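Reply to dn_fold:

You asked what the input looked like. This is it:
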Amino acid sequence: MDKKEVLLAERTTHLAEKRTQLSYERTILSYIRTAATVILFGIAFLGLSKMGGDFFNSAGLVSIVVGSLFLLFATISAFKHFHEINKIVHFFEKVIAFRFNKYKHKNK
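and this is what came back:
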């Protein structure tokens, strides 16, 4: 491998890592958006329960609980995925550094 190929491989790997990280961020943000929507529906149902009806009160409380649990799941999932991404990034940084050092010593 010549120096240009090593640099190109390093750049390509870096871009793939960024795409993966951005993909996880989009997924986590969609989880948060969904949880916020469910919680807001719960608040709206609680507002409608003042007009009368136990159904709206129950549906509102259930929606708030489900939305809160979904938000908790999103937070735990985010921490887990970001930890995995960091492990992968550090592994590839070591591999690229090893290959680049190997190439430098070979061509001296």
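The chain has two helices and no strands.
Hope that clears it up.
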